[in-house]
Structures are given as C-alpha cells and as structure tokens.
Amino acid sequence: LSILDKRQIDILIARYINEPKATLEDLSKKYGVSRERIRQIEESAIQKLKSFAEKAGNLHESASCSLLLIK
C-alpha cells in the first residue's frame, strides 16, 4: 500500500473495510472537501492499485517466461 498516500488509504478503509461503511458525505465532512472530491480520491486510489496489480502480474509472467527459456 506504499503506492497510496495516507488519505487514500484512510478513504478506502472507511468505504470498504470499516463497519459501518462511511458514506461520501461522512468523509467529505471529515476531510473538509466535497463528496465529489472524495469520490475522485477513491477512484484514483483504486486505479493506482489496479495499475500496480497489472504491473506485478506482468512481472510475474515475464519472470516465468525467463525461467522457461533458461531451462
């Protein structure tokens, strides 16, 4: 999770892990920004995680192919 900043991590945890789940309204009040801004921060964090996962997957596939070539 080091690819995300603290606010992004806090927002994802509040929206998807904590019970009860925080609403955009709850988080907008906490951070002093609009609900839309919270949604944008959340989306940005999700995109970063997806991109990281895709790159990690490609590295894993590349390493597997390299091992096959060595044999």
Explain what you see.
The chain has 71 residues and is mainly alpha-helical. 79% of the residues lie in helices and 0% in strands. It has three helices and no strands. The longest helix has 36 residues. It is elongated, with a radius of gyration of 17 Å.
Number of helices: 3
Q: Give the overall form.
A: elongated
- H-E string: HHH
The largest sheet is: none
Average pLDDT: 86
Strand share of the residues? under 5%
Question: Structural class of the helices, strands and pairings?
Answer: mainly alpha
* End-to-end distance: 35 Å
Low-pLDDT segments: 65-71
Radius of gyration: 17 Å
Number of strands: 0
- Percent helix: over 70%
Jot down its keywords.
mainly alpha, 0% strand, disordered C terminus
In short:
With about 70 residues, this protein is mainly alpha-helical.
Which helices and strands occur, and which strands form pairs?
Blueprint: H1 6-17, H2 24-31, H3 35-70
Helix pairs in contact: 1-3, 2-3
